[in-house]
Design brief:
Blueprint lengths: L4 E6 L4 H11 L5 E8 L7 E4 L2 E4 L1 E2 L10 E4 L3 H13 L3 E4 L28 E3 L3 H17 L1 E10 L6 H16 L37 H14 L9 E8 L6 E9 L6 H9 L4 E3 L11 H4 L5 E8 L6 E8 L3 H17 L4
Parallel strand pairs: 1-2, 1-6, 2-5, 6-7, 7-8, 9-10, 12-13
Antiparallel strand pairs: 3-4, 9-11, 11-14, 13-14
The protein binds NADPH dihydro-nicotinamide-adenine-dinucleotide phosphate (NDP) and aspartyl phosphate (PHD).
């Protein structure tokens, strides 16, 4: 076993990549050297790691010749092409993209929920979808204690979830919109950018592409990834999951309205609140009298998942509503990735 590792961040110049750099710098991983990789466009760019200047390199299979650990967030196509090359060269890869998540041989891991799955890895570990991570983090203690029959989730997802370019696009649209608009402006021009419709001052009930059945791929990911993470045992009873995913004009921080039904109808809001408050990485923010509830603006820059607005459904015993918020770039991506890597090192699974 090595006592220091060469770590590569693939996609280092992106929205998630920039957080991977800062999360790695704050981590307990013993580091010999860091390589920052991106596309040809960014080769030569200078980035900082712990006060040291590192020059970004164009990623290629040979980039991984001397690498022990890869933290990857350069899109699914890049992961599919380069991560098997990294594994071939002896590296262990933690991948943020959806490329390998549903591969039955690849563990899909949220530390604190199912890190035991890490021991089954064959070189690649998948980091779940950002919306899935915060939801399973909040539901896992409830599931462990009372079982879950059904989850119905509606998401309110920040534009940074669609990458740095989407954030730039919304900022430009917002500037235009606020400059000299009449009270009832017509639809903004899209400028032929990444999104078909304006992101600023709008709601888009579409994240990722549409599937044949009318669900979007983001909704599909939330449904299937949730089951893969929570239902570790082959004989665990099925959980019914359905989702509606919506892009909202928020910079950072996904919100989720979650309606869930537990197996044990005797569970109460009070007990659920106690359980959430006692669970590491969860923060209960729930005091209607003080108007205390989770908000994206407060979750930004934090590693925890914030939970509030817990209510029992008076017309359906055993059913509850809650509101969950987390920083999609940290809790939903970079912090989870680096926590996975820390577990690999701690459990000697590198
Ligand atoms: N944003 C989020 O909330 C989350 C994102 N993810 C996933 O993480 C991945 C990255 O997302 P995000 O950071 O938002 O995206 P960005 O668009 O902000 O960043 C993409 C990164 O990938 C690099 N890249 C693009 N093409 C190549 C290539 N051919 N070879 C090497 N590097 C390349 C880019 O480099 P360059 O600067 O050179 O173009 C950039 O560093 C996606 O797969 C996304 O699905 C997962 C969970 C949450
Ligand atoms: N789709 C998420 C972010 C993301 O990239 O997810 P995934 O890694 O599952 O494609 C969002 O737009 O908010």
């Amino acid at each position: 076993m090595k006592d220091r590792y060469v770590v590569a961040i693939l996609g280092a110049t992106g929205a998630v990549g920039s957080r991977l750099i800062s999360e790695l710098a704050d981590s307990k991983i013993p580091i010999e050297r860091v390589k920052l990789l991106a596309s040809k466009r960014s080769a030569g760019k200078k980035l900082q790691f712990k006060g040291q200047t590192i020059i970004v390199e164009e990623a290629s299979p040979e980039s991984f010749d001397d690498v022990d650990l890869v933290l990857s967030s350069a899109g699914g196509a890049v992961s599919k092409q380069l991560l098997p090359e990294a594994v071939k060269r002896g590296a262990v890869c933690v991948d943020n993209t959806s490329a390998f998540r549903m591969d039955p041989t690849v563990p899909l891991v949220v530390p604190g929920v199912n890190e035991k799955q890490l021991k089954y890895h064959h070189g690649i570990i998948a980091n779940p979808n950002c919306s899935t991570i915060q939801m399973v983090a909040a539901l896992n203690p409830i599931y462990k204690k009372w079982g879950l029959k059904q989850i119905i989730v509606s998401t309110y997802q920040a534009v940074s979830g669609a990458g740095q370019s989407a954030w730039n696009e919304m900022r430009d649209e917002a500037k235009d919109y606020l400059s000299d608009r009449p009270m009832h402006p017509e639809i903004l021009p899209t400028k032929g950018q990444k999104h078909h419709y304006p992101l600023a001052f709008n709601l888009l009930p579409q994240i990722d592409v549409f599937e044949e059945d009318g669900y979007t791929h983001e909704e599909w990911k939330m449904i299937h990834e949730t089951k893969k993470i929570l239902l570790n045992d082959a004989d665990a009873p099925e959980i019914k999951v359905t989702a509606t995913c919506v892009r909202v004009p928020v910079a950072v921080g996904h919100g989720e309205s979650v309606y869930f039904t537990v197996d044990d109808e005797k569970s109460s809001v009070h007990e659920i609140k106690e359980l959430i408050a006692a669970t590491p990485r969860l923060v209960l923010q729930d005091d209607p009298k003080e108007q205390l509830y989770p908000q994206p603006i407060n979750a930004q820059g934090k590693r925890e998942t914030f939970v509030g607005r817990l209510r029992a459904d008076a017309e359906n015993p055993g059913a509850f509503n809650m509101w969950i918020v987390a920083d999609n770039l940290l809790r939903g991506a970079a912090s989870n990735t680096v926590e996975i890597a820390e577990c690999l090192v701690k459990e000697q699974l590198m």
